[in-house]
Structure formats: C-alpha cells, structure tokens
Specification:
Mean pLDDT: 85
Strand content: 15-25%
Low-confidence stretches: 4-33, 46-56
Strand order of the largest sheet: 1-13-12-11-10-9-7-8
Number of strands: 13
Structural class: alpha/beta
Largest sheet: 8 strands, mixed
Number of helices: 15
Helix content: 40-55%
C-alpha cells in the first residue's frame, strides 16, 4: 500500500524524538535532554495559559540504586502491532530520559485484550504488586479503573478525554490528588471531523455518530459534536462487535450520508470491522485516531501517535525523580496529523478536493 506526504510544512509538525523516532523510521536522534526540555516547556505553557505560578517540588526521589517498578496497563490486545508500537515508543522515550528497562526500572505489563470489563481487575493487580507508578493507557476507561484502584500510588493517564469533567483531576493546571498525564480535548478533533466530512457530503446531510454508551468520555464528545454546525448529527450507540454490526444497519435505515466515529478503545480494537462496514454500506467515515485510516477508514485527524507515549514517559520520569502528580499540569498534545485513505475514497467513488489532499500529512494510496 503506497503512502505519500502532503504539505511538507505540515509534515514537519510531527515530533519524532530520539530512539522513539527509530520505531517510525525517522532519520535523526534527539538527546534525552532536548526531549525532556521540550516536554517540560509544554507543561509550563499549560500553567501559563491559566495564569498560575507552577512550582513542582521534589518530595521523594527514588533512592540511588533502587530499581523502580512501573505498572502499565492497556485495554487492547498484546498481539496488536499498533499498540505494541505505542508501548515500544514509551519504553524508548523512558530510556532517553535515563530509565532503561531491566536496569533502572522494571515494567509490569497488563493487557485487557479488548475487554474493557477487565480493566478494574488489571489495575487492582498492579496495586497488589506495589508498583511505584501506574500508567493507564487507552483513555478514560483505563484512567477511571486506575483511580478506583488507588488514591496513593501516582497514576499517569494517556489521552483521557475530559479528565476534569470525569473527576480525575481538579483542573488541568493543578491536578491535585495522585493523577496527572495527557488529555485529548475533543472540541478541535470533532470540529475537524465535521469539516472533513463537509468536503465529501452536502452541507446539512445526516451523519451518524458511532459512540459507546459505556464510555463516559463519549458523552462529552457527543455534547461537543452536537454544537458543531454544518451537519445533522445522529448518535448511534454500540458497546461491542455485535452492537457495532447492528449500529450500521441502523445507520442505513436512517439514511445516513456518512459516519463519525468517536474516541473509544472498543472502536479501536474493532477498527477493521468498522472500516469494512462503512465501506460496505457506502459511508464516508471520519475518525479521531489515525489507526482507523490505516485500517481502511476514509479520513482521520488525530494526535501524533508518537507524541502521546513520549509525553507519558516524561511524566513517569518526573514522578520517579520525585515530582508529585498533584503539581504536574495535565498537558494536551500539540502535534496532529491528517491522514486520508485514497484507496477507500476510490472504492466509495469519491473525489477528494486537491486542496484537502495538499493539507494532508499522509495520503494512503
């Protein structure tokens, strides 16, 4: 499958750092000092944006010579290469920051295999083995499971939607408690998805919105989506593979012209099924994770899949050096990418405007 780059100015926005860059084939290596400085500068900007003075005290750095134990759990399957990639970027970024697995740290991995109901048990297991910090991958469901499992062990969340509204942190600038990390704010992502679909369906068209009623973050996304003008959005819920199949039947019955897929671990696990169903039913599709476009979805506008695990590694390193989660602002990613799958566009009989193709960071041929 061929891939081409769009506007080189946009392509350069994707930050590829150090050993993590090797995972995606980037030609350069950045020192651990530059990675740390760049990420720390982002957190300072978060605090400055809210007019707060950020002081991060060191309270109990790991004793010299001690091997720290990190608990890392994910809603996905260990065999999924996409999430193996994210794990590897995390490990390599940690190594750049001075924490090499097997030398300075050990990592306890837990995978839910696409079964969100397993997450609370996995989080409890990590608490039981007395890890020094927990990494909750996969958005809000993992973050909530970790929060329920412990109020004392530091937790680093990865890409959780609306952590303030979910009760994970007091505010982005001053989280309080034992949780910090990165967040995905859906407003810009959903607005961009609507904008993308308006290039391929008439204004005012009915667009189905696939959402998971069991994911609290999806409720926020639905509210945001409903406020975006331009298209008539029609929510269709699904919690698992069987319900996803039924959801597409409902979409066709309601004469949807396209489908938007919200950010959800189940939908990522079922990304191939969703892409196949959208194509089979003749529905142009837009997503907030680029992995969906790799699987055959039409278009995705998403945070860089390199930047998020790098951010997670940065937080873990800061905590192991003695920083308190309560004092580390929750950060938003700054690197986003637009991916268009032209193979899918041709199969749907769509003409993608040249102006949109030129804006794309990647075009899958």
């Amino acid at each position: 499958m061929g891939r081409t780059r769009g506007d080189p100015k946009i392509a350069r926005r994707i930050f590829l750092g150090g050993a993590a860059a090797a995972v995606v084939g980037a030609p350069h290596v950045v020192s651990r000092v530059s990675v740390l400085a760049a990420l720390w500068a982002r957190l300072i900007l978060v605090a400055a944006a809210t007019c707060t003075l950020m002081v991060v005290p060191v309270v109990h750095a790991q004793p010299a010579g001690k091997v720290a134990r990190i608990g890392w759990f994910s809603p996905y399957a260990a065999s999924d290469p996409e999430f193996q990639r994210g794990r590897d970027i995390f490990r390599m970024a940690l190594a750049e920051l001075g924490y090499v697995e097997g030398q300075d740290i050990t990592i306890e991995y837990r995978w839910a295999g696409g079964k969100a109901e397993r997450l609370p048990r996995l989080a409890a297991e990590l608490v039981k083995v007395k890890v020094d910090v927990i990494v909750a991958q996969g958005g809000l469901p993992s973050a909530l499971a970790a929060q329920q499992a412990t109020k004392t062990i530091p937790i680093v969340i990865g890409g959780a939607v609306d952590p303030v509204g979910a009760g994970l942190v007091a505010s982005l600038a001053r989280p309080g408690g034992n949780i910090t990390g990165s967040t995905l704010i859906p407003d810009a992502l959903l607005g961009k998805q609507v904008e993308l679909l308006m290039h391929v369906v008439p204004k005012g068209s009915r667009v189905a919105v696939l959402w998971n009623p069991d994911n609290p973050g999806n409720a926020r996304q639905l509210r945001v989506a409903g406020a975006v003008p331009g298209l008539l959005l029609d929510p269709v819920g699904a919690r698992d593979a069987a319900e996803i199949e039924k959801a597409f039947v409902t979409m066709t019955e309601r004469r949807a012209a396209a489908v938007m897929v919200l950010l959800d671990p189940t939908f990522l696990t079922e990304r191939q099924r969703i892409a196949d169903l959208a194509l089979r039913n003749g529905l142009p599709s837009a997503y907030g994770f680029r992995t969906h476009a790799d699987a055959g979805g039409l278009m995705a506008y998403a945070a860089s899949r390199v930047e998020l695990p790098q951010m997670t590694a940065f937080y873990v390193a800061r905590i192991l050096k003695g920083a308190r989660p309560a004092d580390l602002p929750v950060a938003q990613p700054t690197k986003f990418e637009l991916v268009i799958n032209m193979k899918t566009a041709r199969a749907l009989g769509l003409t993608i405007p040249q102006t949109l193709l030129l804006r794309a960071d990647e075009v899958i041929q």
